[in-house]
């Protein structure tokens, strides 16, 4: 007997959503979109999601609202896409880009030109109109590896960059350039989480639909109201509350052992 296909697993299965995510990444590897290292990153993220209870917590909701406000206020927002994001949330990335009038830019650590092209074409298959990254013409200062490649008109010239599933050193470099960075990171203790302007401690498959809904809801708000949301946001406080949410969930789980 072989491994069951997801189509053989009923949606009522308690791990259905997790199995769907895993299958999307495996498919991404088979299509040359996701690197094998991305599977390791997904496993680490899934373990951290267990600590959250696999739900969007109140601090994550606060971060998502601040992220939506920041993206709506941006003059030159850009959405960065790596292999895992392309496999897991391509339609959502394209939808969010369309709603805020932003281009997408492919940026991957284990870069090959073929893989970049495949990711770009994959995003276009979901309706992306403007995708940078295939012919980078600039570099992020301080980064010597492939993720330092950037495009003028894209990330290099952006004022706000949305970088789900980001590397810590690149996030630090973008902030040093004066950019405001929004990221999705299930590890509230990572360099990325601590460096970003807004860190959403949530699973990317939940965070993106939430962001899209919030951008739609908040798009009609006055600029002053959006600026107040951003000004009152405290990323460090939100990260502390995210850790507390993990500890609280674990405590509740351990309490069941004593019953």
TrEMBL record:
EC number annotated for this UniProt entry: 6.3.2.36
The protein's annotated pathway: Cofactor biosynthesis; coenzyme A biosynthesis
PANTHER family: 4-PHOSPHOPANTOATE--BETA-ALANINE LIGASE
Keyword terms of this UniProt record: ATP-binding, Coenzyme A biosynthesis, Ligase, Nucleotide-binding
Swiss-Prot/TrEMBL GO biological process terms: coenzyme A biosynthetic process
Subunit description: Homodimer.
InterPro entries: PPS/PS, PPS/PS_sf
Regions that span the bilayer: none
EC class (word): ligase
Enzymatic reactions: (R)-4-phosphopantoate + beta-alanine + ATP = (R)-4'-phosphopantothenate + AMP + diphosphate + H(+)
Described function: Catalyzes the condensation of (R)-4-phosphopantoate and beta-alanine to 4'-phosphopantothenate in the CoA biosynthesis pathway.
Pfam families in the cross-refs: PPS_PS
Family stated for the protein in its record: Belongs to the archaeal phosphopantothenate synthetase family.
Binding of ATP, residues: 22, 44, 185-187, 191-192, 203-204
GO molecular function: acid-amino acid ligase activity; ATP binding
Protein name: 4-phosphopantoate--beta-alanine ligase
HAMAP family: PPS
Keyword Signal: no
């Amino acid at each position: 007997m072989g491994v069951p296909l997801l189509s053989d697993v009923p949606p009522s299965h308690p791990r259905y959503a997790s199995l769907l995510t895993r299958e999307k990444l495996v498919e991404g590897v088979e299509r040359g979109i996701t690197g094998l290292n991305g599977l390791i990153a997904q496993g680490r993220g899934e373990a951290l999601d267990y600590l959250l209870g696999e739900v969007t917590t109140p601090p994550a909701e606060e971060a998502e609202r601040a992220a939506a406000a920041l993206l709506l206020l941006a003059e030159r927002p850009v959405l960065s896409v790596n292999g895992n994001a392309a496999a897991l949330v391509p339609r959502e990335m394209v939808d969010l880009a369309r709603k805020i009038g932003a281009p997408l830019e492919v940026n991957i650590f284990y870069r090959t030109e073929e893989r970049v092209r495949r990711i770009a074409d994959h995003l276009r298959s979901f309706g992306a109109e403007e995708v940078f990254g295939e012919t980078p013409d600039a570099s992020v200062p301080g980064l010597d590896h492939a993720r330092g490649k950037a495009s003028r008109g894209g990330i290099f010239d952006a004022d706000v960059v949305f970088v789900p599933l980001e590397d810590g050193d690149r996030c630090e470099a973008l902030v040093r350039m004066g950019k405001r960075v929004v990221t999705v990171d299930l590890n509230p203790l990572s360099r990325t989480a601590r460096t970003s302007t807004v860190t959403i401690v949530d699973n990317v498959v939940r965070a993106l639909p939430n962001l899209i809904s919030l951008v739609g809801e908040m798009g009609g708000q006055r600029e002053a109201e959006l600026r107040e949301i951003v000004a009152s946001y405290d990323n460090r406080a939100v990260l502390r509350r995210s850790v507390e949410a993990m500890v609280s969930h674990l405590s509740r789980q351990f309490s069941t052992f004593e019953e």
